[in-house]
Amino acid sequence: MKKSMTFGLVSMLAIGSFSSALLNTAPIEVLAAEDNEDESEEITERVHVDSLTLEDAMMYGLNSDFSLMELEYTLESLRISEDAADESYDDVEDNLDALQDQYKDLEQQLEKEKATSGDSATIDNFDKKINSLVNLLRSLNIEEIDAIINDSENAGDPAATLETLLVNIEDFLSEYKVLEQSTAEKLAIVREQIYSLTQTLESLDAQLDQLDLNITTTFNSRIQMREGIKLSIASTFFGLLMSQEQLDLMKANLENQQAETNNAKIRYDLGLISEDEYEDATRDLTKIEEDIALAEKQLKNDKASFALTIGIAYNDDYQIVTPELGEVTLLQQEKPTEELIYNSYNMVNARTQLRIAEDNFDYVEDLDDPTDEQEDKAEIDIEVAKLNIESLEVELENAINAMFAQVESQYKAVKDAEKELTYAKEDIADTQLYYDLGLLSKKDYESSSLAVKQAELTYNSAKYQYYLLKQKVDSLGEGVILTN
């Protein structure tokens, strides 16, 4: 029996459209149509959610991705084909064993026939002597042979008796030659059948090798695709979360601007400011309102697109739940780069390709009369496979180095944003005191409050991007190296 995915980090999580090109949509649940005569029709039912966590988004997305489903079906089909080919291999191998046993039996039978009747040279010589005797009898004018043999009254005639003996010997020799020829022909036929089955086994062997390669690469591609989909879902999820937080900040700014516009109206009515100054305040208010309306529309479209991408029903406004990411710590590379590369699915695929090329080379070398083209191609395939491994090693090493360089850089960005948030909170504490003492205007106090919200937004954005990097690092432990 014989048996890179590319996903990039978003450069900045802010309001705007988020592409779902890397994800395909599919129904979460498919139910047969009820009370319908056409059983082939189906109803697609999507899950309705009022709120969406990151974990649920990944679960829905992984269960709904068409590309992932296609790989699952492809893998199952390949395994069925492998089982069928493996069963055929066993059957052919059993038949080949039986034919080889039959061939040995025929060889032994032929040897026994030769031992019993003498070798072919002696029999041929004996045959010639008998023919000479028959011709001699005829030259002595003995009665017609056929008449003598057929006439029972001449049974006592010595000549007739001798002739009968000679004819019987001739008949025996003829029958032996037929028997010997029949056994030799059977041997030739069995030899051809053995050769044919041997060729079939070699073909099935090559087919099983190719199926093994396809199963390995498909299985590995599925694992890599899952990790890439998870990263893409997380990236889009955090993008929506940042859009919502940005929108909340804009609305807080709108409240401040509304209050400032109201104050400007009072001052304008009292003649304390000019009409131009009042109009400037109203224009600023209108601009913020327009920006908010545009941002709300964009966020609604993005949430609808994301719902379609992960296979859930889009409610008018489902809530994006902020995840608990915990304390941010600096990620360290726990395993040597060489080990990460060697154990990666990328490299497993490349080594499998090399093994198949080497097996094919051995097959060509074992042929009775391989052509120069066959030998050259087999050698080239090995060199190409080795070159691919070398190239992949460089690519993966660069990807790992770049990944941990990004980790350090983003970790610093998180800590810097954390400091700025701390400073903003300290400032608002001082501002609150000055405002309570009447030493600071409400406008200045509210501006300080907005500064804290902006610092929180920047800090959250840095944390979310660091989480995406952490997800890529975690994938290393699963044997997946996302190269971008």
| Low-confidence spans | 3-43, 142-150
Number of strands: 6
3D shape: rod-shaped
Over the alpha carbons, how many angstroms does the gyration radius reach? 45 Å
Give helix % range.
Answer: over 70%
Order of helices and strands: EEEEHHHHHHEEHHHH
In DSSP terms (H or I, runs of 4 or more residues), the helix count works out at 10
Enumerate the strands of the largest sheet in spatial order, edge to edge or round the barrel: 1-2
End-to-end distance: 42 Å
Major sheet description: 2 strands, antiparallel
Give average pLDDT, whole number. Answer: 80
Task: Determine the strand fraction and express it as a percent band.
Answer: under 5%
Kindly name the structural category: mainly alpha
Give short descriptive properties of this protein:
484 residues; disordered N terminus; two-stranded parallel sheet; 6 strands; two-stranded antiparallel ribbon; 10 helices; mainly alpha
Description:
- This is TolC family protein.
- This protein is mainly α and 484 residues long.
- It has a domain of 151 residues.
- The chain has 10 helices and 6 strands; from the N terminus they run ββββααααααββαααα.
- The strands form 3 sheets. It has a two-stranded antiparallel ribbon. The protein has a two-stranded parallel sheet with strand order 3-5. Strands 4-6 form a two-stranded parallel ribbon.
Compile the SSE list and pairings.
Elements: E1 29-32, E2 42-45, E3 47-48, E4 51-52, H1 54-64, H2 66-117, H3 120-139, H4 145-150, H5 158-269, H6 275-310, E5 312-313, E6 319-320, H7 337-342, H8 345-365, H9 372-436, H10 442-477
Parallel strand pairs: 3-5, 4-6
Antiparallel strand pairs: 1-2
Helix pairs in contact: 1-5, 2-5, 3-5, 5-6, 5-8, 5-10, 8-9, 9-10
Keywords: Cell outer membrane, Coiled coil, Membrane, Signal, Transmembrane, Transmembrane beta strand
Protein name: TolC family protein
Subcellular location: Cell outer membrane
